[in-house]
Every structure is written in C-alpha cells, then in structure tokens.
Write a structure and sequence with these properties.
CATH class: Alpha Beta
Structural class: alpha+beta
CATH architecture: Alpha-Beta Complex
InterPro entries: Papain-like_cys_pep_sf, Peptidase_C92
Radius of gyration: 21 Å
Number of domains: 1
Number of helices: 7
Number of strands: 10
Helix content: 25-40%
Keywords: Plasmid
Distance between the termini: 70 Å
Shape: globular
Strand content: 15-25%
Largest sheet: 6 strands, antiparallel
Protein name: Lipo-like protein
Length: 251
Amino acid sequence: MGHGILVSLSKCIVKVLAKPSHQHRPNLPDSKAKLISSLRVADVLLVEGDSRISNYIKYLTQSNWSHAALYIGIKKINGVDMHALVEADIEEGVRLISLDHYLNHNLRICRPIALTDQECLQVVQFALERVGIEYDLKNIIDLARYLFPVSLIAPFISKSRTLFLGSGEPTKAICSTLIAQAFQSIKYPILPIIHSHTEHYCLGCVNEIFKVRHYSLFVPRDFDLSPYFQIIKWESDLNLDYRSIKWHEES
C-alpha cells in the first residue's frame, strides 16, 4: 500500500516538473536544413529546455543547457524514417525521438574529437541498447545536493572524490549520465580527473594520469566545457554582411 502511494506521488511530481513554462524561442529561416547538415552521428545535442525541471537544472548548474541528447542518424520512429535522437525523458525514460522535437529550442552541437566511424557506432549502439529504461529521479535530487555550494554553509564539509549519485540501478538514467556512459564505454574522455606527479628519475618531468569521473556526476554543461568536444555553431550565418544591417538610431 505504502509503495503504491509513493509511486502515485512520484508520477504527480513528474507531471508538474515536466510542465513547460514560457520561453522565447528563436525562429531561424531554414533552421531544420541547417541543423541536419551540421550534425554527425554521435554528436551530443545540448538543449535549453523550457520545462520546470529544465529551469531547475539550469539554476543548479548555472548554465543555459538543461538537457542533452545523442544524435544517431536516420532511424525508423513509428514506422517513419526520421533524423533521430536518443534521450532520457523524465516521463517516458530512455527513448527515441525525432530531431524535429527540438527545432525551435536554443541548441548547441558538441562533437567528440578524433572518433572513427566505428567508434561513433559503438557509442550509438550503447545508447540504443538502453532504450526503454526508466528515468532516475533520485539522480536529479542527489545532483542538487552535490551541486549546491555546501561550503557556504559548512566549510568543513568536503565532497568525496569517490562519490557517485542516483539510484545506482542499471535500469535507470538521466540524460547526461546516459550519454556519459556511452562515451565511457569506449574510454573516451569528457571531463576526467587528472592527477599529475613528478617522475623521480627526471627532474621537471610531469606525468599525467587520467581517472574516470563517475558517470552519475555529469550534467549537460560538461559536454560544452569539455576540451575533448568541438563546439559547432550550426546556426551561424556565414554569409552575414553586417554592414547592411539597419540599426535603430536614438534621437
């Protein structure tokens, strides 16, 4: 009985969090064609969402980006070939969705550097195999606790380097953890922990060792900040003639 009430309450909370709020959306000419021509398989698409949960994530991470999805190329969705993304949705869990869903949102493309076609397919396949798993609400709650500046309240509290968040269940994920796991499956770096130490046999020589950050600690902005992802400004107008712009002159 108690479990049933908890499940019902969770569903009600999810519906409230998923409700969109007003947001100004860009209206760019030929935006779909530009976006499609700019995308490659295994690109990470960052989204400035407009739901309540999106505003919550943007506030916590101090970033415009509240959501991340993985571009997987053309796939059948409901029997129709579409440019598709894999994402973790708060209501439906990990799912396939058409690129059209985000056309009127503020977007950014983050492209992994130096991946081969085969490695891109491995990343995509990892994500596809997880379609259908649930959204990890506990991870969102734990991220809030992790990202909140506890040092302002209790400076003596430190965050453990071995900390990981969320339910820890392989059948649950959020958007950024799903994509982080996909890239970590081929040992591709996102924002690794880097330890430096001096070699005893070589004065001035420093050796760097990469340590994997737990996938549950990633948020959408990390793909934007990562030096291992190229930022693609797909909406840029390369034919811009700024001299022809008519500016309003103040009297």
